[in-house]
Amino acid sequence: MKTALLLLLTLAVASGPARALQCHVCVSTSNCKQPQTCPASSRFCRTMTTVELLSGNLVKKDCVDYCETKYFQQGQVSSGSATTLCCQGDLCNAGRSSAAALSSATLGLTLALGVLALILGPSL
């Protein structure tokens, strides 16, 4: 009995208290980095990037209990795209998502094609 109690005590001390996840938590028009300790219930770091033609980029990073990766691309020139990326690790949401960079490139190409369509449209 004493051996079992000693073993449990040793395991409890060795494991120590659970350490909370750390994520960057911020809102910006560019890649922001502001490390914060998340609430104990948070299991994911999330980065949401919205690219809009008229208003530009908006990057929001936070701690969340549940997260689902999503990619959304509108079909119209005037509408942008949105990306939600999830990760599980301390400060894993530090970098700007490659999807956001891709969305910016796609948006530029779409804008160029739209201008070309406006120029050539009346002659077609």
TrEMBL record:
One of its GO terms (cellular component) is plasma membrane. The chain crosses the membrane at residues 99-120. This is Lymphocyte antigen 6D. InterPro entries: CD59_antigen_CS (IPR018363), LY6_UPA_recep-like (IPR016054), Ly6D (IPR042339), Snake_toxin-like_sf (IPR045860), Toxin/TOLIP (IPR035076). It holds the Pfam family Toxin_TOLIP. CDD domains: TFP_LU_ECD_Ly6D. Its main location: membrane. The keyword Methyltransferase does not apply. The gene is LY6D. It comes from Trichechus manatus latirostris (Florida manatee). Keywords: Cell membrane, Glycoprotein, Membrane, Signal, Transmembrane, Transmembrane helix.
